[in-house]
Amino acid sequence: MRIVFCFLLVVVIEIFSVFTPSSLFAQQTNTPLSDVAKQRSSPPSVEIIAIDNRIKVLNAPIGSRLEIYSVVGIKVVEIEMKQPCGEYVVNIAKGYYIIRIDETVRKVAIR
Questions:
Q1: Which residues of the chain form beta strands (DSSP E)?
Q2: Distance CA 42, CA 38 (A)
Q3: Dihedral angle, C-alpha 44, 103, 86, 92, nearest 10 °
Q4: Which residue stretches of 26-56 are H helix?
Q5: Which domains does the chain have, with CATH numbers?
Q6: Per-residue pLDDT of the chain (111 residues; tens, 9 = 90+)
């Protein structure tokens, strides 16, 4: 009798261990995916576009600085951002430059 009881106990434990993980970890949510994406979304990223001798900036933090460096690392121009979006004319020689606004860095060609 004791052997049968132990055998049944082992069978019940095995069945319980096979079916329990899926029922413990599966959760149904009623939150639409678009709401989840909105909760996890970060602020819009800074966009930097260079056209000829104009630099167009979108979504920049107010008070940040637009810094233009030559490819060898020398700062050529520094402009304080007073608006989140704007277009700036830069009078610098044609060539390749590195533009930095806070943590956003882009390589551009001034023509």
A1: 47-51, 54-58, 65-70, 75-80, 86-89, 95-101, 104-110
A2: 9
A3: -150
A4: 33-40
A5: 47-110 (2.60.40)
A6: 667 665 666 665 666 555 555 444 455 556 565 555 555 566 789 999 999 999 999 999 999 999 999 999 999 999 999 999 999 999 999 999 999 999 999 999 998
